[in-house]
Batch of 2 targets.
Target 1
Amino acid sequence: MAEVINVCGLNEEDFKKAKDKITNALSVLCLRDKLGGNPFFFSLIATKTHNIVDSKTQAASTDGKVFYWNHEFLSKLTNKNVEFVMRHELLHILLSHCRPERVGGRNSKVWNIAVDYFCNALIEKEYMEIDNENGTSFHSKVWTGAFDKPISLDECLSLLEGKPSGYETDKFRLLSDLSVLNSTPEEIYEIIMKKKQDNKQGGQQDKNNQKGGKGEERGGGNAENEDGDGEIGDGEIGKIDDHMETKSTKEEVAHAVEEARQMMKSSRGKMPSYAESVLKELSDPELTMRDFIAKLCMKKSNDGELKNWSVFNRRPEHLYRRGANGSVEKHQRLYRPTKKGYTPKFLALIDTSGSMSDDDIAHGVKELKALLKVKGSSGVILPCDSTVKWDAATSVDNVNDLKSTKIVGRGGTCFNDFFTNYKEKVGGDFDVIVVITDGDADVIDIKLKPSCDVVWVYTRRDRVTTQSFGKSVFLKSSSL
Ligand SMILES: [Zn+2]
């Protein structure tokens, strides 16, 4: 059974209250679905440790192994609220929301908002389905206790615009909106980022009009600062948890889900509809361009080649030893190289053959944005159909340059020429080659495998060619 640990030194009475909240919530979760529980979630959390803390976390959080509860936050919640937060945390783990490879290089505040919307809406939907099947009314009880009515996505967007409406409440207003379930968290993220971008532009105009008047503050702050600092508290809107990096491996999570499935079989419990896709994603993850880039950057910056031995850390470290008179003295200076940032230089080949739609091409080019967001990165983009259009090569080193990409040719598809001749035509000094295609292509001879990384970005799933080298990614991210 779950263990509850008094990490922050609460007095006996307060700790008992906190512990009761956790165990009571677990006993609700343990009930059958139609009684308001969720045996699937229960089996995932039943043996976990819960640490009652005061400063480590502001609200609730988990790294997949241990759950952390701020005792002040916990004291405000009802058992039902605690149970909701437990479901929320488990969904983050199941759906890999807090893994660096999924977060990619995104603005973390906005990503947190996007995944919270997704989790909360998914929980709401589950309650509604149970209610529909059994004539119960669990959904209407979600927003009770410390939880006030939720913040819809539209309202959140207007909050980002600086128009708070009824947000000044003591209760927690969670981010939830069933309409987001038509989108992936990645798409919700894009919606919010676009809104922030529009605000910035609006703010910039206000600034120009008012010469540094008030519009500057509310408009969304510094155009260079993607982290959104200085904007109207978007990191705090609807916040019920801190998103810690997940420590459980995907295999561990998949194993736990599999165990839960076995338990469901024997107890007539219901597996959630998304459990199958969760298992598939955990055991056979589908890479996106961002995943690929995040992995590439991680790999490169862990490699010795990126350590810069000519620039040492400002504060040298030393080995110490005991001196003759018993004092401790510095023995040897330790030289540690500073880490150089990874600035990928890429060569992108875009399939402009007849089978690629204009949208495919536009979306493909957009994927390169993720690469160009890595600081200092640059690249060359080449169109290709039955022949490589060497003359139409476009150099890019920022996102705006993508607009000047020349798209020519609408014939067949042939990449052999490209892999045979690119070094001679555009140089061989690239870290990664990106091929954007719908997949209707010949398999390239393994002998042409370049020494740098290669990624095939597929715009369609039904014509994917298994290539003899390189990684494959898909334009569309996973649906959960
Ligand atoms: Zn969350």
Target 2
Amino acid sequence: MFRLFSLMLAMFAFMSCNQAQPGYEARAVSGPVLSLEGDTLEHVEKTKSEWKAELSPLAFKVLREKGTERAFTGEYWDNKKKGIYYCAGCGAPLFSSTTKYRSGTGWPSFYEPIITGNVKEENDTSYGMNRVEVVCARCDGHLGHVFPDGPEPTGLRYCLNSVSLKFEEKK
Ligand SMILES: [Zn+2]
């Protein structure tokens, strides 16, 4: 019984957002940030105190200070509704429910951004790990990390914080 529990714990740790995955480097993503209608969205630049005034304390910590919400505590990890996930900082469209899948990590997981240029990748060596951070290309808000263990067709797992996103249901 204990062995099984340890095994499950180990598997869970392997799947978690904090696990380093060798063999994946940040890709240079180019192209303008676009709305769903195809209009170019201007870059959003705000001071730390401006962000602090408009975001919740947790959203500020995650989006602006690269924090991580605790697994299974966010609003969207188990959200199965159809719709669009926008950046909670600037409103840029980032991911669609059509590419969301069940990763078992306790964080909302997707295999592909809705518009390539709207999500940037950056190498992140914090905490002694080699990870690839994903940020909103419009406001540079921290969204989460991307790992090469996702499902087809991309093989990628965008492991995101719910608090960085704002979901809008589309029926
Ligand atoms: Zn943003």
